[in-house]
Amino acid sequence: MRYILTDEEMKSYDGWTIRSMGIPSLVLMERAALSCTAALYEEAFDLRRVLAVCGTGNNGADGVAAARILHLRGISTKVWMVGNPEKYSPDLRTQIKIAENYGVTFVHSPDFREYTTIVDALFGIGLHRNLEGVFADAVHKINDSGARVLSVDVPSGVSGTTGAVLGAAVRADVTQTFAWEKRGLILYPGAAYAGKVRTADIGIYLPRGERPGCALTEDCDAVKVYSRRPDWGNKGTFGKVLLLAGSETMYGASYLSASAALLSGAGMVKIHTARENADALRVSLPEAMLSFYPEENTGEQTQMEAFAPGEAWADLIAAGPGLGTSAPARLLVRRLLIACEKPCVFDADALNIISEDTDMLRQRKNLTVITPHIGEMARLTGESAAVIKADPIACAVKFASSYGVICVLKDARTVTAYPDGRVYLTASGNSGMATAGSGDVLTGITAGMLAQSRADEAAVPAAVHFHGLCGTTAAYRGARPSLTAQDILRAIPETMQKLGIF
Hints:
Elements: E1 2-5, H1 7-19, H2 25-42, E2 50-54, H3 58-72, E3 77-81, H4 90-101, E4 105-107, E5 117-121, H5 133-144, E6 148-152, E7 174-178, E8 181-182, H6 183-186, H7 190-194, E9 196-200, E10 214-216, H8 219-227, E11 240-244, H9 251-263, E12 268-273, H10 278-284, E13 289-292, H11 300-313, E14 316-319, H12 327-338, E15 344-346, H13 348-354, E16 368-370, H14 374-381, H15 385-390, H16 392-403, E17 406-409, E18 414-417, E19 423-426, H17 438-452, H18 459-476, H19 485-490, H20 492-498
Parallel strand pairs: 1-8, 2-3, 2-5, 3-4, 5-6, 6-7, 7-9, 10-19, 11-12, 11-14, 12-13, 14-15, 15-16, 16-17
Antiparallel strand pairs: 1-10, 17-18, 18-19
């Protein structure tokens, strides 16, 4: 994993470095500017004519410093200052004076058609208001210029914390950010504006013992889970998963989840499902054991008795894929919430049942993982989908802490939030994974990795990341729009091999 920061965290660590460590802000600024000029060369920008578009704060100062460095290297570089000079930061005033001393040209009404490269240094982190007036006009001129664009730290107009577009935003080809990536460069829509993101070490570090609130999952997180798998183990060692899934009209969900649990490493899987699924599952997935709902109208006690052996046998229970919301389904989900002491993963219809009384989650006595997509999260919280998508991290953190669960909020960027406030963001995968059954595969992978790791909670974000990698592997075999959940499923073994997991 690697840390990704909010605007506020970045400002705090920047200030700590200057005040407590004694590194002058102008030194950090010089290193930032040098990293920007290096990015222009390394990313093969056309440097025949460069325009630095600079705002009134320290992001603008970075841009002026970069323009001065390019000028001194013989690159035709000009600077356009945007905004009220009375609001220039002290460091910006210093950088302007230095640039003037070296003969850098400042322009007032540039013709953007003249330039082959634009350095966007209007705003960095900390923007909280919509861009208007001369700043919005400048953004539109940059986007309409046809030149390649390097954004300094964050594309101007993008929130560094949430990725929201604040009225208007620069569409960068490359974003050169500093010290750590910002959340808004990973989350959408900001990620779509950032282009290629590069991160430069400019001398800002964490205070001793401090940890930012969010990390980005990486391949090594999945490898760590599998590295603990003992060579001497047997099928019991690697975990027994009970899957409560599949109704009489939804056989496929139970098949996908159970297959994913087995392929991701669970030793044994048992599916408790509708009897109508028996023949199909016996043929398509002979490795799985089966148990069934009793005949209809046989009473709650009979339903519980049919489920009890599997519950007692399992190390971990996953519930929801294709489950439906029938009376037996409701009964058994409530049982898992109120009386079951095994680790549980809840998805799909189990979440729809829970949404009718979320307080049941507070009665859970062991590790509880929920994996809602945006629509399911809206039902669980009563918030609109738009509100959730605007700040998914905040929404997931609030729910996880309120109910004592690990909340995996699925979207183009998936958030895994823990009750103690820790957050992991996952950027693996691709848009082809937005297909029916993909979430069922994730449920199975999560259950399988949790079962073999003895419910190590670190397996949850690792499973989310691994699921995305499987989607990427599947996409290499064909076009993303054609991906199906079975493609993701079939990619599990190949993805393990790519990661060196044998």
